[in-house]
């Protein structure tokens, strides 16, 4: 398997590459959630298994345990893809939190008694119950549009269009998805990335 | 209502990377359920941890998965059945002494671990939580007008106010306030006209050292014998 990580001295193009990768992964997750698409999962697996393996090897220093972490993490991704929320974070962060939970359980397995608490009880990220929290990247309402417009001109085109349609034209994410012919998950991740970028721009300027 | 006492950033980092004990994870996680600011911070930390640990592929050449290993694992995953271990139904209502409390999400998910309530000295009740070996985690309920004798702590202790208000000589603590104890401090926690439900654990990690001095101190380990 090709293991060359993409590096470039140009930060801008690196950010774009990461954004593209995130959108790709989000689309694959959506396909898996929709119809248990094995081809999509295989592709996602090839993207993430080596990264998970590298993370786990550094964590455990044991190849077999590392492989267990890869397998258990990706098994959860296969069965729980529908629980990924593109507006909450990137696909890789979601997968990382699953791996973090598996690691927590694997580290405790030796000492574990029957009734011990598991990571899923502590971080209910894979809970089917819809006990959503009102988090997310919401901008403060008192930030004036005029101030924002100066900053959002600096966003990449794809993100700026989405922000304009949602925050200026008042369209829903679904409407923007329909209008642009882009999957809803992509719109959600673009919105999140754009708001994050805006926040960085605004904070840097202070 | 503003939460004024939060876990330090170092603690949030350890929470997000999964390096805290189960008990401390539960207390910090319950604070995060109640605190939008810390929730936001943890989101950002998780993203950063992901960038450091997952997105940046450090090549560990000798352990790269072979094609056949990949195919084998994929087969195993497709053959696996969705893990349907019956999770305990979250119960977010806690009734005690004629009061009804609503438990935050993480605590509600662990409501089946809350043991029997027992009455302690004064106007105090406690119920232990079964988390893992050797931890000492308790829900503690102080009725209005409860007061503890002045005391010190041998170890570090985290306390989270779930509902109500209590105070010591230093300050007043309300819903969502997270207090990490300094072992050297003496104090006298008490309630006034209102009651107070808190979650407290003595099971603190040994290695956090910085940025904690600003945090204050509520309960004695005389509860945890």
TrEMBL record, chain A:
Key words, A-Z: DNA-binding, Sigma factor, Transcription, Transcription regulation
GO biological process, one term: DNA-templated transcription initiation
Protein name: Sigma-70 family RNA polymerase sigma factor
Keyword Ligase tagged: no
Similarity comment: family membership: Belongs to the sigma-70 factor family. ECF subfamily.
Annotated ranges, domain RNA polymerase sigma-70 region: 44-112, 153-200
A GO term for molecular function: DNA binding
A Pfam short name: Sigma70_r4
Automatic annotation (TrEMBL), chain B:
Pfam families in the record: Cupin_7
Residues of the ChrR-like cupin domain: 116-200
SUPFAM superfamilies to which the protein is assigned, alphabetical: RmlC-like cupins
Gene3D superfamilies with a match to the protein in the record: Anti-sigma factor, zinc-finger domain, Jelly Rolls
NCBIfam families reported in the protein's UniProt record: anti_sig_ChrR
Name the UniProt record assigns to this protein: ChrR family anti-sigma-E factor
């Amino acid at each position: 398997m090709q293991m060359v990580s993409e590096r470039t001295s140009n930060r801008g193009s690196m950010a774009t590459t990461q954004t593209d990768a995130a959108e790709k992964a989000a689309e694959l997750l959506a396909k898996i959630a929709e119809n248990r698409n094995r081809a999509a999962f295989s592709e996602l697996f090839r993207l993430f298994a080596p990264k998970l393996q590298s993370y786990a090897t550094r964590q455990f220093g044991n190849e077999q345990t590392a492989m267990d972490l890869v397998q258990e993490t990706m098994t959860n991704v296969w069965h729980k893809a529908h629980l990924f929320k593109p507006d909450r974070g990137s696909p890789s962060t979601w997968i990382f939190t699953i791996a973090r939970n598996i690691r927590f359980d694997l580290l405790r397995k030796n000492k574990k008694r029957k009734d011990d608490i598991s990571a899923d009880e502590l971080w209910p990220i894979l809970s089917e119950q819809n006990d959503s929290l009102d988090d997310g990247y919401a901008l403060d309402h008192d930030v004036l549009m005029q101030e924002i417009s100066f900053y959002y001109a600096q966003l990449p085109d794809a993100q700026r269009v989405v922000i304009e349609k949602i925050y200026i034209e008042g369209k829903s994410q679904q409407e923007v998805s329909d209008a642009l012919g882009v999957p809803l998950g992509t719109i959600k991740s673009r919105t999140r990335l754009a708001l994050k970028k805006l926040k960085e721009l605004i904070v840097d300027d202070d | 209502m503003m939460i004024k006492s939060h876990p330090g950033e170092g603690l949030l980092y350890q929470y997000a990377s999964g390096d805290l004990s189960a008990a401390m994870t539960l207390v910090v996680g319950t604070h995060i359920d109640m605190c939008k600011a810390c929730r936001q911070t943890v989101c950002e930390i998780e993203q950063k941890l992901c960038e450091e640990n997952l997105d940046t592929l450090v090549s560990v050449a000798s352990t790269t998965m072979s094609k056949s290993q990949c195919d084998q694992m994929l087969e195993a995953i497709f053959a696996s059945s969705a893990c349907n271990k019956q999770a305990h139904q979250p119960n977010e209502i806690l009734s005690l002494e004629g009061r009804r409390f609503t438990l935050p999400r993480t605590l509600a998910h662990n409501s089946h671990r809350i043991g029997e309530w027992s009455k302690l000295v004064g106007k105090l009740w406690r119920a232990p939580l079964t988390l893992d070996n050797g931890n000492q985690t308790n829900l503690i309920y102080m009725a209005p007008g409860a007061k503890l004798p002045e005391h010190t702590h041998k170890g570090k202790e985290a306390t989270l106010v779930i509902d109500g208000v209590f105070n010591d000589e230093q300050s007043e603590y309300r819903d969502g306030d997270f207090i990490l104890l300094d072992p050297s401090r003496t104090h006298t926690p008490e309630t006034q006209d209102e009651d107070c439900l808190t979650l407290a654990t003595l099971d603190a990690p040994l290695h956090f050292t910085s940025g904690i001095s600003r945090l204050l101190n509520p309960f004695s380990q005389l509860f945890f014998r």
